Amino acid sequence: MCGIVGILGKTSTDVANALVTGLKRLEYRGYDSAGMALLSQGSFHRHRASGKLVNLEALQAEVPLVGNVGIAHTRWATHGIPNETNAHPHMTERVAIVHNGIIENHEEFRPALLSAGVQFKSETDTEVILHLVDQALMQGLAPVDAVRKTLEKIKGAYALALLFREHPDVMIGARHGPPLAVGYGQDEMYLGSDATALAHLTHRLSYLEDGDIVVLTSRSVETLRLSGERVQRPVREHRVSQTIADKGAFAHFMAKEIHEQPETIRQTLGTYLNDAKSGLQHPDLPFSWHDTPRVTIVACGTSYYAGLVAKYWFESIARLPVEIDIASEFRYRTPPLPKDGVAIFISQSGETADTLAAQAYAKAQGQHCLAIVNVPESSLARAADCVFMTYAGTEIGVASTKAFTTQLSVLAVLAIAAAQARQTISQGDFQNFCKALAQLPALMDEVLICEQECREIAYQLTKAHDILYLGRGTSYAIAMEGALKLKEISYIHAEGYAAGELKHGPIALIDDAVPVIAIAPSDALFEKTASNVQEVIARKGQVILISDEEGHKKFSHPHIRRLVLPSTSSCCILSPVLYSVPVQLLAYYTALIKGTDVDQPRNLAKSVTVE
Ligand code: M6R
Question: According to the model, what pLDDT value does residue 28 have?
């Protein structure tokens, strides 16, 4: 989390403004405080502000900072509360620093630094790096040696940018974990957390590898390893859009992104379905589905729920055993992985620290690593053996919507491809699956008609303290996704349960104040879920049943609130994608009515680059 921008500019550039523009593009990484420091006339000048970036912009408008060299930061707090004092950059007279990551052994150095007379001004782990570098500079070390000496001692994750008062034409970057890109301009050099942060300045970028330190001057780049060995990182063109996304006619990015889903699914499936929509086309696979003994799927949050849906698909259609785990657990439980196994990593950002570590583990275990990502130049994509892109476009809302349904679309393609390769479905079934996928964009348009009804139901939800979501099969995953969506943006406690688990404990929660949202397309498991809904009604729970006409005909009750979706009975792949929409809309309108910050909910960040 946290975003970094650094500019080693020419006198002509409005560096302060360019830094703020970079931060605007990085606000998705954290938005609890922001700051920037410029080096001019032999000293650092700094603005820092708690809260959103607009507060920093207001400071800059009031007292403009000038200079042609600067670093800036948008923060997601780890060590120390989100206030101005803990906001980056941190600086001494000699050095200024911005940091993304966590230094795990920072406590180790504090006693010695305190006895050397250091006065810590913040509660951050970053300030320890600052003073270690500062002390090394005072001992007469050159900037690069001071940074190297410091980084040799510290443990943890970092992307860093540093400036030095005595060396106004030097900016140093370092990476261990969170990504850091070097941007190449005309007699200017930049550092940024990603390509988007620098898109207004340059498209020519190189990415640092873990353990790299880069020393920039306005005309030179030198990359070294911690050992001092010189290395070169390839410079490539990264064409990301310069425009900062706008909300169009919508009140929030989340609403816009929900409505974009028919189009983003069309774009995504357009890449993987052939022109006749009766077959698949996709990147070459570095493995054979036929020889694969098992698939391992690893991801976090919403991306994990996409993987959970896919587990049902791979197992039922392709008859392939699937193990699935959340990345933060998978990476530390040293699971044995089979020879010729395929490991699928799903991530919107491609920068989620735990998912990256899980992929590194699977690679070391000899798995074929396939990444499903929305950002082509992301760390996950770069480290994978094979990449399947989602074409969701930039997702700004912290609550993932269009990324989720495009992930499901890609996973469906993979499950169908695996089934065809393993001959677990007939050619006719294969074509029917492809045709069903091709219908998805139009069906998504149809589902969006339920928006007004979701809005009305949301009034009921805002009054609740606890909400349960129930489902079976792939709808169980959508139940958990619905609960996650609701809690992250409305701050109402919600849980998703397998409907059959209800009587094993959670049913104790049910009374007339608890809404229960049942996700139940009329499939083979409908009657089972309906029985569980009966149990809720018997205990006076407020049931909202999301089903199709057929389901509502089979099961109705005066105490049930109905939400009717198009029929998905023709293909098991359709329902999880379509039923994602009402749970997104319910969360959106509940948050809207409650007046919470829909696009940037408290305590969260879009990209989770720390573990
Ligand atoms: O970028 P990723 O897909 O790897 O992110 C994983 C989760 O952090 C993310 O899905 C998170 O759960 C969303 N905010 C949920 O809406």
Answer: 81
Q: Residue 207's closest CA among 234, 186, 241?
A: 234
Which residue's CA is the closest to the ligand 1 atom numbered 12? 301
The domains of the chain are located at 3-237, 248-438, 449-611
Nearest to 334 by CA among 362, 307, 313: 362
Residue 132 · residue 109 · CB < 8 Å? yes
pLDDT at 243: 65
Domains 248-438 and 449-611 share a fold: yes
Q: How far is CA 183 from CA 16, 208, 241, in A?
A: 17, 11, 15
| Inter-residue contact 413 to 310 (CB < 8 Å) | no
**Per-residue pLDDT, 609:** 83
Give CA–CA dist 169/152, Å, rounded.
24
In CATH terms, the superfamily for domain 248-438 is: Glucose-6-phosphate isomerase like protein; domain 1 (3.40.50.10490)
Which DSSP letter does residue 38 get? E
Give pLDDT tens digits for 100-130: 999 999 999 999 999 999 999 999 999 999 9
Measure 224 CA to ligand 1 centroid, in angstroms. 33
CA distance 51 to 145: 35
Tell me what pLDDT residue 222 has.
97
Straight-line distance from the first to the last Cα atom of the chain, in angstroms, rounded to the nearest whole number: 10
Question: How would you list the strands of the sheet with 342-347, edge to edge?
Answer: 322-326, 295-299, 342-347, 368-373, 386-389
Fold of 449-611: Rossmann fold (3.40.50)
Which residue, judged by its Cα, is nearest atom 4 of ligand 1?
Answer: 347
Name the active-site residue from 24, 311, 402, 606.
606
Cα-to-centroid distance, 600 and ligand 1 (Å):
13
d(CA 527, CA 534): 10
Closest CA to 100 of 162, 14, 146: 162
Residue 301 and residue 326: Cα distance in Å, rounded?
Answer: 8
Q: Which CATH architecture has domain 3-237?
A: 4-Layer Sandwich (3.60)
Q: Sign of the C-alpha dihedral, residues 89, 91, 97, 100? A: negative
d(C-alpha 105, C-alpha 601), whole Å: 30
- Map tokens 């990264």 to a residue: 238
Spatial contact of 155 and 168, defined as CB atoms under 8 Å apart: no
Strands 167-176 and 189-192: unpaired
Considering only CA atoms, which of 491, 402, 375, 482 is closest in space to residue 29? 375
Structure confidence by residue, pLDDT tens digits, 193-230: 998 899 999 999 999 999 999 999 988 999 999 999 99
Rounded distance from Cα 97 to ligand 1 centre (Å): 28
Q: Is the pLDDT higher at 10 or at 340?
A: 340
What is the mean predicted confidence (pLDDT) over 372-387?
A: 94
- Could you tell me the distance, in angstroms and rounded to a whole number, from the CA of residue 400 to the centre of ligand 1? 6
Pocket of ligand 1, beta carbon within 6 A: 300-303, 347-349, 352, 355, 398-400, 484, 488, 607-608
2 is catalytic: yes
- Omega of the bond leading into 89 within 30 degrees of 0 (cis): yes
